[in-house]
């Protein structure tokens, strides 16, 4: 009976740690993968290097061409997209207002 109790406690600790740390992380990664897979033309995105941009082309399943400034396009792997911000974000609204003011 004593040896069963010795094995039960470490097993219980392992299961608690597993469900508190590993399962939520896997769920988050799966959710991010789905968002990146479903990215579409016109979406604003944040890349892992901290650059914001707008998806303008999707030439392949794992590649996206992103416009980071007017006339500046970069080709990136989709896996480097950290967050899909949607079609029109507050950041782009502010940027477009500033560029409109500068042009006047």
Write structural notes for this entry.
With 104 residues, this protein is an alpha+beta fold. It has one domain. The protein is 48% helix and 31% strand. It is built from 2 helices and 5 strands. A 5-stranded antiparallel beta sheet has the order 4-3-2-1-5. A hairpin with a 2-residue loop joins strand 2 and strand 3.
Helix content bin: 40-55%
Strand order of the largest sheet: 4-3-2-1-5
General form = rod-shaped
**Terminus-to-terminus distance:** 83 Å
Average residue pLDDT: 81
Stretches where pLDDT falls below 50 for ≥5 residues? none
Strand content: 25-35%
Largest sheet: 5 strands, antiparallel
Count of individual helical segments: 2
* Helix/strand order: HEEEEEH
| Total number of domains | 1
Derived structural class: alpha+beta
Q: Any idea what the radius of gyration is?
A: 22 Å
User: How many beta-strand segments?
Assistant: 5
Give the helices and strands, then pairings:
Elements: H1 2-37, E1 44-47, E2 52-60, E3 63-69, E4 72-77, E5 81-86, H2 90-103
Antiparallel strand pairs: 1-2, 1-5, 2-3, 3-4
Keywords:
104 residues; alpha+beta; single chain; 48% helix; rod-shaped; five-stranded antiparallel β-sheet
Give a brief description.
By secondary structure, this protein is an alpha+beta fold. It is about 50% helix and about 30% strand. The chain has one domain (about 1-104).
